[in-house]
Every structure is written in C-alpha cells, then in structure tokens.
Amino acid sequence: MTSKILFTPNKLPIPWKLKIALGCISKEPVMYQGRLVMVRNTPLCYHDLHHLEVAKLERIRIGKHLVSGIHGINAPELHEFPIVAEYDGILDEVRVAFHEFLVKTSVYNTFKAFLWINWLLFKGINPIAVMWRHHKSLQRFLDNSLLAAANLNDLPKE
C-alpha cells in the first residue's frame, strides 16, 4: 500500500491568522530605514529575502541535487531573467525552511521544519544530514564574513 501526500509543508492548510500568531513573518514586507525594500518593482517579503540569503551560501546536497535556494524556482523576485529550473523547486523550500528554523526560530518555523523533516524521511532523504549541511554552510559563510571584516580592520591606517 502506498500513501499519498495531500500537501507539502510549504502549502500548510492553516488559517493565515493562526500562522501569524505562531510567528510566521513570511509574507511581511521587508523594511529598511523605514522604507519598503523593492526588488524589480516588487516589494520584497521575508520569505523571498530568506531565499536570497540562502543563495549567498554554498550549495548543499539534498537527495541527488546540489541546492542553492533559488535555482529550482523561476520567480521574478529571485532572477533577473526566466530560468530553466535545475531541480524541483520544492528542494529550495526545504532549504529555506531549515534556514528560517536556524536563524529566525519561532513556533511556526519549528513546526514547519518538523513537517519538512517528515517529508524528507518520506522521500528517503536523511533530514539530519540536510540540516547539518545547511548549518555548516551557514557557519562557513559567517566565519568567512567575520574573517573578511577582521582583515579590513587590520589594514594600515593612512
């Protein structure tokens, strides 16, 4: 007997007000210095910002694919021109969900990560390995950023 998934965790059938009460900020617009952040004449929301954050990290293996966070999704907010997806965009959603869980922990993001963990298990993919790879990628990025900042501080003063 095979079971069929009725929805993926990125399409949770939960009322929007409940999502917000649990800490979901995905659709909130990003503001910087009191101004709305726009990308290609479209207001940037936090979910898309998280895709862009993940895209700055090294790719990680999820199943058979090296996932960037943006190369499975053909969205104008993420790409200047239409792209041919390199893999199923659902893998970008998995990575972004794990990123949100690690950097913007909330009840909602924890619940969503739990659902993605189960989805990966159902697909035969080790979710602990995926979470660890993302964590290590994030840590390397942060370490390199701190190192670059420290090197700038060590420049000779004129």
Outline the structure in words.
By secondary structure, the protein is mostly helical. It has one domain. The chain has five helices and six strands. It has helices at residues 16-21, 46-55, 90-103, 107-122, 127-153, and strands at residues 31-32, 35-36, 38-39, 42-43, 60-62, 65-67. Strand 5 and strand 6 form a beta hairpin. The longest helix has 27 residues, at 127-153. The protein is globular and about 60 Å long. The model has no long low-confidence stretch (mean pLDDT 86).
List the strand order in the largest sheet.
1-2
Share of helical residues = 40-55%
Q: Tell the overall outline.
A: globular
Mean residue pLDDT:
86
- The number of distinct helices, counting runs of at least 4 residues, comes to 5
Order of helices and strands: HEEEEHEEHHH
The biggest beta sheet reads: 2 strands, antiparallel
Question: How would you sum up this structure in a few lines?
Answer:
The chain is built from five helices and six strands; from the N terminus they run αββββαββααα. By secondary structure, it is mainly alpha-helical.
Attribute tags:
about 45% helix, mainly alpha, 6 strands, two-stranded antiparallel sheet, about 160 residues
List the helices and strands and how they pair.
Elements: H1 16-21, E1 31-32, E2 35-36, E3 38-39, E4 42-43, H2 46-55, E5 60-62, E6 65-67, H3 90-103, H4 107-122, H5 127-153
Antiparallel strand pairs: 1-2, 3-4, 5-6
